[in-house]
Records
---
Amino acid sequence: EQLIAAWKLLVPIQLVTILCPASLMLLAQSSNPDLTWDKMAFVIKRLLQENLLPSLALEDGCLQLLRQEWPEKLLKRIGRCLEEIKKDGDWDGALDWVIFFSNSDPDMDDFDLDI
């Protein structure tokens, strides 16, 4: 919440590249990936709710990521993060394509997603 409050102090306030190759590389280095990705989903959700991150900018950043090669485990983590965000809002339909990041495989929880 303090991070969100700090961003609100900046003018103009819009983040457009929260999910980008650099942030993914940092997230991939986490010693606790589950907690890290949960926190990332929370931050992105709050940024969207506060209109600090336009939903179309998030969509564009994610679609840019899909054009690159990423390990399957990382794509699944991104997919779960986006699914968590999507279930809490419509976001102007900007996250309707989230299925491209993750499989709808019900057995997916059996996989070890540590990266």
---
Amino acid sequence: AAQPRLDEFNPRTLANTAWAFATAGVDAPRLFDAIAGAAQSRVREFKPQEVANMAWAFAKARHDAAGLFDAIAGAAQLHLGEFNPQGLANTAWAFATAGVDAAGLFDAIAGAARPRLGE
């Protein structure tokens, strides 16, 4: 029921929907495809937590979404300074778990995390 209306979802709702289905372990490939399509062109509108949650959800669901991960990598690198330590860790975990080749993102996350290790 939600799939045809995903274009009406704001970034938080898209990320929360993906997170909820991944957390529940629901096998919903068509929904994840639709969320990826809706989010990919809008990921630069996402706040850092929404970016991290979206990446985490797709990795947790083991749903292949190369285009979305590419868009997330680009958006994340622009705003890593705004991520909290948990968001940095979740984003790194998601890309590693999904097996996405994102050396530039991993380097950027390491750079952003290094001065914040005491937090």
---
Amino acid sequence: RYLYSINGNIASIQKLRFKFDHEEVVDLREYDINTLTGVLKLFLRELPEPVIPFSYFPEIERAICSQEMNEEQIVNTIKNILQSLPEPNKMTLEYLLIHLAKVFKEKDENQMDELNLSIKFGPSLLGTLLDIPKQIKAIEILLKTISHF
């Protein structure tokens, strides 16, 4: 319950981060869920730029705010934008979205609906240039683009 809302033990998070940073073999079964989610949040938070780089924001915001496109057109526009991401960003985003789609599917159990996913992941994916309503819509649309990767 409340996945990504409860912080893991900081010492365990740092220990696991150290292992990842030094490319050590890690058995994730050795760590509790809050440590694992904490490491993921820390990794995303410490990126020098969001997973979707700042230079893509104007196009994404235009698509999200468009009054002229229907939802399918918006999803296709966002999909095309995402396909042009640098390969490391695209791969990171793909894996993250697959994970978030699984988390969202269990929203009744883990309390991670669009709003909570936006609060926890919006800044890491989209930076802080988009306000919360736009981040919510963006996360919603991003979750719909998964099948397009």
